[in-house]
Amino acid sequence: MGTAIAVAMTTCVAIYSVVALSGLSIAASHSASVPGNVLDLFAPDDTLGLAMRATMSVAVTLVYPMLCLPCRSTLDHLIFGGEASFAGSAWRHSVETVAVVCSTLVLSNVESNLATVFGFTGATAGAIICYVLPLLFYLRLRDQQPDAVKAGSKASAGFCYLALCCVIPLVVLSWEAL
């Protein structure tokens, strides 16, 4: 598995580097600014641009299963705590997978710019890593403490959750204003 991941990572870095350097060279030769999607610099009938668009489409399509499984697993752990005691865990996983695929399908049909999709997924992952996971780890570590300490921890966590619920809509509104 380590070899497969190393080969996939090397291939992705090579593909992304070729696309980025080619786009930057076109931008430099035309004294143009680089848009969010570097592939927009290539003319619609440019052979190199078409080849790069096809390669990026294949790369995005092939990487989807590797991204869908961790996403579904993360949702499962956040919603159900990863408990397999639910009688229909196979059904639950199927429903979660269909929900992730449908959400992805809706997002891909609503937004035509892949840069926005990557920005959204990166921001989502960043928010989970920065704000959700530390709180969950803290609560898990505090779980072994006496009941009075646990109650204080849950109250603090609830306050933090409430604060995030108030702040996140403001961030979304300011993001849409950009």
Distance between the termini: 41 Å
Count of alpha/pi helices: 5
Q: Give me the count of strands.
A: 0
Helix percentage: over 70%
Rg (C-alpha, Å):
21 Å
Rounded mean pLDDT is 77
Tell me the structural class.
mainly alpha
Largest sheet: none
What's the structural blueprint in terms of helices and strands?
Elements: H1 2-29, H2 47-80, H3 89-110, H4 114-142, H5 147-177
Question: Could you characterize the architecture of this molecule?
Answer:
- The chain is mostly helical and 178 residues long.
- It has a domain at 113-178.
- The protein is 81% helix and 0% strand.
- The chain has 5 helices and no strands.
- Helix 1 (2-29) packs across helix 2 (47-80), helix 2 packs antiparallel against helix 3 and helix 4 packs antiparallel against helix 5 (147-177).
- The radius of gyration is 21 Å and the shape is elongated.
- The mean pLDDT is 77.
